[in-house]
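Long-time lurker. I teach an intro course on protein structure, and each term I like to show students one example going from raw sequence to a predicted 3D structure in token notation. This year I'd like something fresh instead of my usual example. Would anyone be willing to generate the tokens for the chain below so I can use it in lecture? Attribution to the forum is fine with me.
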Amino acid sequence: MKIVFDFGAVLFRWHPPSFLARVWAHRVADEVEGAAIAKDFFQAYSGDWGAFDQGLADAPTTADRIHARTGWSREDIVAVMEAVPSELKLIEGTAALIQELKAQGHTLHFLSNMPEPYADYLEQSFPLKEWFVSGVFSGRVKQSKPSREIFDLALEQFGAKPEEVLFLDDHPANIAAANELGWHTHLFTTPELAREDLVRRELLPA
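-- Reply from a regular --
Happy to contribute to a lecture. Here you go:
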């Protein structure tokens, strides 16, 4: 079984409501307001941000588009975009899970919706090549989850058939898309629950 990890909110912290409350303290009072603002800023990873995710728009163009659409200060928008790497802190429990899976001899890959600048940052800041045999970033293949195209590209990259893959992702839409294609899946919430599922699947010892 090849085990495939998403990145945001699975291996690296990604929680837009609290992120925006920190970065935009002058605009966002708390996480409740942050959740509402996140819907407009990230558009559920479609629209302007979706194009950035897919490598179809660069960072300056994305900032221009968000500014034109929302009327928010472009300087404020750029501040959020430049702060994203600081949000992507390693989730230690998932990192430990990766080490445990590797120790058991499993082959690990990744499949992440990630704009190219942030993909570059993660590669420079973390030992991705030690953890994963290979991986797919949306910004580099011009496709993003949950489209079938990126799942097909991933299988080709991983040298796997759908039934040979277990995919861990935190977004129900991505899990549903993978399920439809015959992938095994785990809807990720915490490293602890992910480990319990891996034990049930006999991929890790109890």
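Some talking points for your students: The longest strand covers residues 107-112. Residues 94 and 191 are 5 Å apart (CA to CA).
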